[in-house]
Amino acid sequence: MLEAPPQFEPLSAQEAAGGKSEFRRVSVPPHRYTPLKKDWMQLYTPIVEQLKLDVRMNPRKRCVELKTSQHTADIDVLQKAADFLRAYMLGFAAADAVAILRVEDLYVESFSVTDVKMLKGDHLARAIGRVAGKDGKAKFAIENATRTRIVLAENKVHILGSFARIKVARDAVCNLILGSPISKVQTNLRTVSSRLSQRM
After folding, report:
1. What residue stretches are annotated with the K Homology domain (predicted)?
2. What is the pTM of this model?
3. Predicted confidence (pLDDT) per residue in 50-84, tens digit
């Protein structure tokens, strides 16, 4: 006669880490200081209430510190919270970055405009302008078609979304940098996004 396997209680995050608190630091770039002060409650609430982590701002080291508490149920949430804060520091709105905590398989991909094509001076500024479009229309068109979020910071492009959608958005941005007309990029986006929606 087979004996029933023993049943164990699931370990808390602190027990899984050998009784110690796990710790992460996310540095704050100088240009995100003021937005961080303004949005602190929007960042603080999901980290403390949903993920049950401890969080504080360390002004001396210019970073936000995260730590597991005895209430933290799962050790993975610490990395999720760090990714959420990193996305915010890159320039994403708190409401967009919080999707990293709620949805699985979301991440941020960053690349430089000069990685796509070696450009300098006015040519570089024009390429960035093409990606943004008049009043940000080109950027919004890519975001809406691919259901991603895009941040243009100087010559860096940061895209937040799922793997497949980031690929589509990245291809569209690269085509704009390489000089494709926005109308052609939008036509391609429409076909690809309809295909993505069917696959979902």
Report:
1. 105-178
2. 0.79
3. 888 899 998 899 999 998 888 887 778 888 899 99
